[in-house]
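Support reply, case 0932

Customer input (verbatim):
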Amino acid sequence: LRAALVALAASLALGACGGSDGESDAPAGADPFFGVVPVDLPNSEDFARMAEGGVGSYRVVLAWPTVEAVEGSYDWSSYDATFSELARNGISPIVTVVGTPPAYADAITDPPTDDAETFDAWADFLEAAAERYGPDGDLWGLLAETDPGVEARPPVAWEVWNEPNTALFWTPAPDADAYSALLKRSAKVIRKVDPEARIMIGGMFATPQSDGAIVSYDFIDQLYAHSGIDEVVDIVGIHPYSPDVGGVVDQLDGTREAIDDAGDDA
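Our regenerated output:
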């Protein structure tokens, strides 16, 4: 079975990724366990300060609606800039793939599993993303021309969706069966490009309050009930919001127990 690790979103204790054979002028990079989840898009000075401060990982929310704002056309420019800055500063990206463009759904929170055409388009988007930012991605060839001393920084993990157990991000209501299908197909597509890619269940708040929300531990149980999920999942993401440390620890323990109960050998 693939080991499933409980991890805070953007705080994964993963090893350093890929790179060129030559010496690099970029920072060697800090421990990826210490990460940043940005609210506003940082500038070059911000990324440099992160590196100086020992930040090792950075959550990139790779939104399908941003990339495919026009149906049938991909625009990677804004993400190219982010991935390039991360590489220059020795920071590892943790990529969250999320959202459905208006051309395919009424709301960006509608899952791409609702119809076959949209599901196929999602798969095409993921394959293109992995081909651009994976270990042998197109971006790294372009970056080698402009910044020859910078090592590639492919994603240390691919997080599939965000809080799929809540109706705020999975409309009209969470559905473990549909999310299982999304997780399996996403993993298959990404690993076709990068066989060593690490796949993460979208980070979950334990007890969301939205209508139809599912307690994360129950959602994990429902997911693992599907054959093959334990072979797909490397990491279980959680968002342990709490007013105190005890609440965070309780959610970590509850998630750990749910994975153990599912029979995974994490």
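We compared this against your earlier run and they match. Two observations from our side: Strands lie at 5-8, 35-36, 57-63, 92-98, 157-160, 199-204, 235-238. The radius of gyration is 18 Å. Please reopen the case if you see a mismatch on your end.
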